[in-house]
Amino acid sequence: MIAEIGHYALVLAFFVAVAQVVVPMYGAAKRDVALMGFAAPAASAQFLCIAIAFGALMHAYITSDFSVANVAANSHSLKPLLYKISGVWGNHEGSMVFWVLILALFGFAVAAFGRQLPDTLKARVISIQGLIGLAFLGFILLTSNPFERLDPAPLDGRDLNPLLQDPGLAFHPPMLYIGYVGFSLAFSFAMAALIEGRVDPAWARWVRPWTLAAWTFLTAGITLGSWWAYYELGWGGWWFWDPVENASFMPWLAGTALLHSAIVVEKRDALKAWTILLAIITFSLSLMGTFLVRSGILTSVHAFAVDPERGLFILGILIVAVGGSLTLFAIRAPALKAGGLFAPVSREGGLVLNNLFLSVATATVFIGTLYPLFLDAMTGDKVSVGAPFFNATFVPVMIPLLVLLAIGPLLPWKRGNLRVAIEKLWVSALFTIVVAGGILVLVEGAPLAPVLGFGFAAWVAGGVVTELAERIRLFRIPLGDSLRRLVSLPGAAYGMSLAHIGMAVFICGATGETNWTRELVATAKAGDTLTIGQYELVLEKVERSQGPNYFRDMATLNVTKDGVPFATLQPERRLYPVQQMPTTEAAIRSGIEGDLYVAIGEGSTEGGYIVRVWVKPLVPWIWAGAMLMVLGGLFSLSDRRLRIGAPKRSKRRAAAPAAEAGD
Amino acid sequence: MLKRLLFLLPLLVFAVIAGYFTVPILTKKDPHVLPSAMIDKPVPPHDLGPLLQDKPGVGPEALRGEVTLVNFFASWCGPCRVEHPILMRLAAETDLPLVGINYKDKPDAAIVWLRELGDPFGRIGVDGDGRAAIDWGVYGVPETYVVDAGGHIRYRHVGPLTSPALQETILPMVQQLRAAKG
Fold it and tell me: Which CATH architecture has domain B34-181?
């Protein structure tokens, strides 16, 4: 019964969406306040309907209602509650419902918090948002109904892919989806602006926080996915340039560019058409991420829907959405009033370069992901594209971006002086030389890669510190005044510094892991000792036991570092009987200097077990760097409220012009 | 005018990309079956050295005389891990010879991987630099090929093997090829 209510709510949401698209759009064209006023309640109603549907599906999973086909196919009565819940979005149908839920949530957010938006803009944004929802609701109802019943109901379910039964992956898809779908709002704002024929700083001020929120979630989502792969796949890799990873990385790169270009629209009333185009591209790439995974064109662990009919449907949505928006762009964007020209050496000039590099990086990943398919379709030639391609193309594009990352924030708006900015960076340059030189000297036979990697990280970090020191006029005014300035800096300033320093930390982690990882593989029996670097690992025992829905062999290893007790590690190997699938649960001891990573494989007490040990320097820095970026996003978001706030707050803004200008 | 064209450019680029995605689907090709120029061609004549000491590699003559399933795999590949139980089941439940080609992998890692998850293959060749894979037309691992008794590639499956793909396409095809031979 509850499943039927859910199904009904989805149908209802579809028809609400129809009204949400048509009425406000017509109202905005006719400047009819009553019709435009329909937008907000429609968005709320749509969110409510989809929330009911989602709740009904969740209920079916929690109560293990196997008469619902989707639950039977993806759940199991013995599965722990967390994975019953995460099972809702761990499959195709459920993830699509989750997708439209987030979409409706963002529409609802505009309705709820968009009181200061001009009426026509608000009506149009909500209408476009409804249009996207309409397409995906149609997709769900016609091809992917999650509430389909089974008769007779099976006694138990087929279980979720055991690789996906993991806390990291329980929250990876929701984060990623909030990120993907969050860009829909940037898209809706772009469409509305094109229809209105007007892009102004107020528009950018509106778009930025939503983009920032989406970007923050996407960053967190990608990081969680990478972290999951690191500890779950059992061999310690964290980024594989897998097509599906790339599908989430492309919107991230484009979204990062969008964040930066929107600043230029906001501050200098320039770069409008480009920003609109970026908003379209970012959301298109998000849609493509959905499409590529769902259609089965690209396959990997993630691909849970392999169905040409669905692929065709999503392809249709993609073509209408992207083709339609780009057509609108081609017609309307040339008419947008261009802002003032600006000098190449200036903050906005730096941001343009940032956009250039990020766009090229996006294109690189795009080509690397799709080129093999493309070439195959055109000429039948085969090429294999993997990590070497991306290392050879993506990394070189990142290098100038990193150089720029330290300089750009030091340039003033309108007209800067490159010499002055670079002179400010002498501390950074010195730091870079010390770090790079130190690695060259201290690490025996250090190849070029780690020297460069840490050198660039030092340069970026130095640049961030210099910029912060400039901002609080460190050593130029009394220290107390500097500290007071530091405390009263706006959230966006902290946000930028945190995100940029996160980049430096991330580079350290990636460089350390890539260049200095050590590996040991051995067959060991109880009592055997393995030695790798400073570590000695003694295999105490391997015990067999039973988990809620799996069997496991759990090894216990006592680890000493330089003879001093260091840790006890318990890696597991699990077998999930329902799907007949083994998984590895690595044991990882993390520290600031890196990870000690142990996984066990097949074996027996007599013959010994395969034990694999990695010493992976600086890996936690990868996650720490990404988390700093997320934190930066959150800090920056906390600032938005002040900036968009009610009129009475404008006085406060006027009181802090220095802080404003520095964003 | 030039400016207008500039604003039209994104749409044109998109049209090309969209066309490339749409055509194969509209012409009713299962997107899972990437078109392969290698279908019905003889297998590329590579002599791939053995991965394991006690198991032969894959020479040019190894794929003749019998219908075989050739699977490209790598220890670094997540989806290979997903399909592995299916290969294990195939090895245990059928008499279909399975040939593994280890793609761009560290031999040690591959050996450990097989020891850990089980080894379904009758012979395993090492394609360390990916040259053979390029000639076979591999886009990415895992990929699986049906090779007939005459040593011609007959079918290509991209991505992890699934039970439906096996039951509905690959195994019937193997039956058919065997019948044709006999």
Answer: 3-Layer(aba) Sandwich (3.40)
